[in-house]
Design goal:
Elements (H helix, E strand, L loop, with lengths): L6 H16 L4 H8 L3 H13 L15 H11 L3 E5 L6 H19 L5 E4 L3 H9 L7 E4 L11 H12 L15 H9 L1 H9 L5 E5 L1 E3 L2 E2 L1 H4 L5 H9 L2 E5 L2 E4 L4 E2 L11 H6 L2 E5 L6 H10 L4 E5 H9 L1
Amino acid sequence: MAQAPGPGRQVQIAHIATQHYLQNKTRIEIANETGLSRFKVGRLLDEAVSSGIVRIDIQSPSGVRLDLSVQLKERFGLQHSVVVDVPSEADDVLQAKLGSTAGDLLSEILTDNDVLGLTSGRTLSAMARSLSSLPKCGVVQLAGVAGPIQETGLEIMRRISTIAGVRPWTIYSPLVMSDAQTAVGVRRQPDTNQTFEQFSRVTVAVGAVGSWKPENSQMIKNRALDPSDREKLLARGVVAEFGATLITDTGEVIHDIDDRCIAISEKQWRAIPTVIAVAGGPTKTRAIRALLASGLLHGLVTDSATAERLLGG
């Protein structure tokens, strides 16, 4: 902080600052009323802040950490960054808070002209439960089924499409097939093929993040892969999944099982104008960092502790 001005100057600064910050007068108006030049008024306003006479404190009434949100946005070049305080890093607490926050963000940014793409997971399930209204936008499932029914894309799609009042485009298939030939057959099925054709229309996508190191992933937890496949992919450096897109610490996408997956591809992810991840907690931090490094994301909804880890690493 700069050296404190003398008492007379303090009064002058306070007078000018009161007119500007509390009475909403412009610098030109203050200059005309006081006989000072507008440049002098500007210098006094700058000194009001530097000397501590005026303190600018930006607060959010909703628990959003505006400071961390802005820092993440600037550090990683994001369109959307929302960081919230969460009272505990327990999975159920995180999922409920991040899900409801993501729901609020969707309600804010979606329009009738958008097409919303969704993956699955407990956090997105919490998001779906938190929503009470949405524009009449298209709704597209981006990946097959890899978890319990309440956490799958199918149930999330049912809830969100009902709120939006539209017909959903769904995928009634496992996320990973046993071999490439079977996957080709599934993709050719009329319902699945029609949903895949909608991927190019998606304007806003929201996805959960799966972690492979440490293990907190639907693909692993629900045994979508056999152990030998998992070990091979771990050896290749996979630490994160996004839909069925597998990513290393450096952000490289590993394509080894792409031909077996019933899901949106890396290329299709990159064609979507707004891709938002919703994830947080100590077991997801490494995976989120990898996903940010991949360049797939335009937005992130996370908790303050995770944001601090991301900014510090």
